[in-house]
Amino acid sequence: MSDTTAIESVLHENRVFDPPAAFARRAGHVHVPSMEAYHARHRRSIEDPEGFWSEAAEAFDWFTPFSKVLEWKLPDAKWFLGGTTNICHNCVDRQVDAGYGDDVAIIWEGEPMPGGRPEVRRLTYRELQAEVSRFANVLKGLGVERGDIVTIYMGMVPELAIAMLACARIGAPHSIIFGGFSAQAIADRVTDAQSRTLVTADGAWRRGKVVPLKGNVDAAIEMAGIVENVVVLKRTETAIGWTDGRDHWWHELTASASEECPCEAMDSEDMLFLLYTSGSTGKPKGIMHTTGGYMVYTALTAREVFNLVPDRDQVYWCTADIGWVTGHSYIVYGILPNRVPTLMYEGAPNHPEPDRFWDIVERHKVTQFYTAPTAIRAFMKWGDEHPRKHDLSSLQVLGTVGEPINPEAWIWYHETIGSKQCPIVDTWWQTETGGQLLTPLPGATPTVPGSCTLPFFGIDAAIVNEQGEEQPANTGGLLAIRQPWPSMLRGIYGDRPRFIDTYFSRIPGMYFAGDGARRDERGYFWIMGRVDDVINVSGHRLGTMEVESALVSHDAVVEAAVVGIPHEIKGTGIAAFCTLEPQHQPADEAATEALRATLSAHVGREIGPIARPDLIRFTDALPKTRSGKIMRRLLRDIAAGEDNPQDMSTLEDQSVLAQLRGT
Ligand code: WTA
Predict the structure, then answer these.
(1) Which helix (H) or strand (E) holds 491?
(2) What is the mean pLDDT for each group of 10 consecutive residues in the chain (663 residues)?
(3) Are 299 and 337 in contact (CB under 8 A)?
(4) CA 29 → CA 24, 25, 304, 309, distances in Å?
(5) 630 - beta bridge partners?
(6) Is there an atom of ligand 1 within 6 Å of 527 CB?
(7) How far is the CA of 428 from the centre of ligand 1 (A)?
(8) Is residue 312 packed enough to be buried (19+ CB in 10 Å), middle (13-18) or exposed (0-12)?
């Protein structure tokens, strides 16, 4: 477990914050108003999951009603069997059909401020229906059929949401790649998914600069080959390469496309999307999510966890990128069915000034705000004067996701952003879980800084040892989920053995999340961090192996070992230890620095800028056990500057250690 300082501080945390009285007043209506209400519903959901979930599913339109709620043959769960529906219909058309076509579905704000003014677009459900249908017809026109995987690589523009909903509409699973990933990362994903259609933009705005999305796509296609059609949205004025016949402008194709496109009737268990995420070994894996269960679970969690209530002037804002699961579930799919406008912001939190987020909250009167601890730590560092310039009194609920939040950041969020008036929902979940599993409910759960508190309805979570035995209070163990839930992953695309091995082999009979955690005497969960070789950098998942492969793909590097180290802002930073080819040994300090910069840029090109190491050390050898395993724990301590006494007897060559400590 990587970040021992975080564990230390949470162990001593015992401040309890009841839901502030102002919350119920501001919200006007609270879905789950007390712990009694929470316990009663949670108990029901565990004792009678089929009854609970079939009632939850009634909030949606089904084209054919399901005949069975759950079929569970470990590790395969099927939900809402026999039912057909379409998530795009339930996000968009259902609102129009019910007479809410003129309600705002998406509020979008661009990053640049032309003439000092923000560029804002508001899309009603009716407009969204038209745009989505048009683009769905564009995809069909390019030969995309039900079941074909469409890759989307865009910035945070409304067309990203439009493209994903269009895919859902016609039953073509999407595979969205975060715009910060490299050409190589696109090539790997496109190849794995055998995706022949790609949707992108000429570029994306980030801190006043243009990220060359189309350039990366061109380079990726050169490597991967397989892509036949690329639709390009014009967002910037950058010059781009163009391949006639393969590349098409979004605006040209949509101009002539019809606004009529019926939703395909999808089976509950038809794949909705693939989303690649990092694991301990090998290349990123394509996590598969299906239609019915994901739809019901994400919308219900969004409603209860953020207390979404339509017709009460709420504006919900999640600052994640849609390229990550948080954006899939809690910008688009979980929010639109709740008929509360979802805000999308294109750019960086500190552009043009460090108060950009608070300016957005004030201007759009944001009521629910969902972000990552790493962002909160950055805001703390930038200073209180930035939020203080703005009226944040519209806020009702504050959320965090992606990594453990340190109590200092929690308290700052509570006081400086929430003026002590807003409950904080610290939500634990994963790409694989589809939706939030452990979380407070804002009007009910007393919160403790650093704890994600209690399981959501239908979630049977436990702290167990390797044998699956539940651990007593305050004893660390593995976080496991004992029963299936509707939005759980259905597999890893094209890799059944890895699916079973990763999630269902370590603890007999249960889903193993990959996190270490403990439960306190109240029953609250405290996440201690990953217990595998995954590191969580600024809330983004990276496999240490991925970064190591990127390093050794450079001529200078023979062997590399990558570990996570505590980092003030990122939570976890990346430390890399490399051994070098003799002819690449740097002669002096300047050459060493130059090589570090080269390797860091190389990793940025291979994976993406988020994977660039914070620290690179060169060494003659890596510490290994006699059986040849790299001693990562030892490297972690060395990188973090700690000198914990531990068992060195297995270290093969003791002189390696002395050398590493000396560098
Ligand atoms: C970590 C992001 C502590 C955890 C939605 C998990 C958290 C991994 C929290 C999944 C939280 C997520 N507290 N740790 N509230 N939320 N994590 O797939 O280690 O990008 O396994 O999904 O992030 O990351 P992923």
Answers:
(1) strand 491-492
(2) 41 85 94 98 98 98 98 98 98 98 98 94 98 98 98 98 99 97 96 98 96 98 96 96 98 98 98 94 91 98 98 98 98 98 97 97 98 96 97 98 94 98 98 98 98 98 96 95 98 97 95 96 94 90 92 95 93 95 95 97 95 95 83 86 57 69 59
(3) yes
(4) 7, 8, 11, 7
(5) 624
(6) yes
(7) 6
(8) middle
434 Rama class: left (phi>0) / alpha (psi -120 to 50) / beta: left
Residue nearest atom 14 of ligand 1, based on CA coordinates: 403
Q: Which atom in ligand 1 lies closest to the alpha carbon of residue 432?
A: 18
Place of tokens 């200092």: 408
Q: Dump strand ranges (E) for 581-621.
A: 615-618
Name the strand (E) or helix (H) holding 497: helix 496-504
Distance CA 204, CA 184 (A): 18
Calculate how far, in angstroms, residue 579's C-alpha sits from the geometric centre of ligand 1.
32
Structure tokens at 657: 């250690």
Whole-number CA gyration radius for the chain: 24
pTM (2 decimals)? 0.93
470 phi, psi to nearest 5 deg:
-65, 140
Protein residue with least CA distance to atom 5, ligand 1: 430
515 lines ligand 1 (CB under 6 A): yes
Contact 538, 405 (CB under 8 A): no
List the beta bridge partners of residue 564: 574
**CA quadruple 167, 172, 173, 178: dihedral positive or negative?**
negative
Q: How far is the CA of 253 from the centre of ligand 1 (A)?
A: 39
Query: Which whole-number Å values give the CA distances from 91 to 271, 338, 470, in the listed order?
Result: 17, 8, 39
Helices (DSSP H) in 283-438: which residue ranges?
A: 292-305, 325-327, 356-364, 373-382, 385-388, 407-412
